[in-house]
Amino acid sequence: MNTSANQFQNSDKLITKITAWIAGVILIGLCIWGAATLWELWKYEVTEDAQIEEYINPVTSRVGGYVREIKYEENQPVRKGDTLLIIDNLEYQLAQQEAEAALLHAKAQIAVLRSSVSTTSKNATVNEGQIAASKAKLWHQEQEFARYEKLLEVEAVTQQQFENVKTALEVAKADYQSFLDTYQASLSKVNDIKVQREVAMAEIKRREAVVDRNKLDVAYTVITAPYDGKMGRKTIQNGQMIQAGQTLAYIVDQHEGKWVIANFKETQIRHMHTGQRVDIEADALPGEHFNGRIVSLSPATGSRFSLLPPDNSTGNFVKITQRVPVRILLTDARDKIDYLRAGMNAIVVVKKGGFNND
């Protein structure tokens, strides 16, 4: 019995000792974890409310029509100027041909008006000759009238002869005035044609603008990539009718780089400033750290930019710690951050009071 009791006592002592050691190790671990946590809270600001961002822009159509050919696939890398989509352009080409024909017609009107100016100017020249002849005839009739008037006084001619000469003088005056009026009318017609030519020139400019507009419409039927990037989801098919301004696809801009939007609590941003270096860890790559630099801090909390900002004057106020978006540019080489995708979660660590600019 004594031997069994001693064995139990030894076993209890061993268990107690092991338990004490385990408890001590756990306590030491908790102390180390607590110290590390306190050190981190004292030296760093950390948030897990952060996402990777890139420019994701819609590709839209400037003209409507039926899709004739799609030249890209989902998630396909593209270069600036690569053809993405072709719209059936037959109607736009016909409109362009019609506009070009109208332009030719307007230009032909200029040639007609130019010819009219030349013809009218020649008529005016002819009228000048007729005016000179009529003036000479009028002068002759005036001399005849003066002679016959003197002869009538001495009764050397009859009254009938004198009246015939007087009538001829009146006819000569009327002819002379008629040629003068015709000449003035020719000059006025020349001026009218010149004014019409200015109107025709304005019409040509308008027609040229219509032609250029139709050329643009034809060019818009070929939709190209605006910059280097990667295509997103494809939502259209061949033969589909699309409208002007309709979103056809989305393209991720790989030229402008990537950044992180970290939503820090309002109590954390007092230690942050533009240019401060940041450590980033993406959830998709645990243990892999990326370098970043604070580019800007939002001028207002995220809730203020929401569709329905909170209004604390309604009487049901509940104090909630607000978050302020902080824009952080990823400064690592493109090859290193190439795996990161827009929308991925990240953990952002910022050193308090650090003025360590890049």
Automatic annotation (TrEMBL):
Subcellular location as annotated: Membrane
Keywords: Membrane, Transmembrane, Transmembrane helix
UniProt-listed GO biological process terms: transmembrane transport
Presence of the UniProt keyword Cell membrane in the record: no
Positions of the Multidrug resistance protein MdtA-like barrel-sandwich hybrid domain: 59-254
A family per Pfam: BSH_RND
An example Gene Ontology CC term for this record: membrane
Bilayer topology: Single-pass membrane protein
Residue span(s) of domain p-hydroxybenzoic acid efflux pump subunit AaeA-like beta-barrel: 260-350
InterPro entries the UniProt entry points to: AaeA-lik-b-barrel (IPR058634), MdtA-like_BSH (IPR058625), MFP (IPR050739)
Keyword check for tRNA-binding: no
Subcellular location, principal: membrane
Membrane-crossing residue ranges in chain numbering: 20-42
Record's protein name: Membrane fusion protein, multidrug efflux system
Native source species: Dyadobacter koreensis
Upper taxonomic lineage: Bacteria, Pseudomonadati, Bacteroidota, Cytophagia, Cytophagales
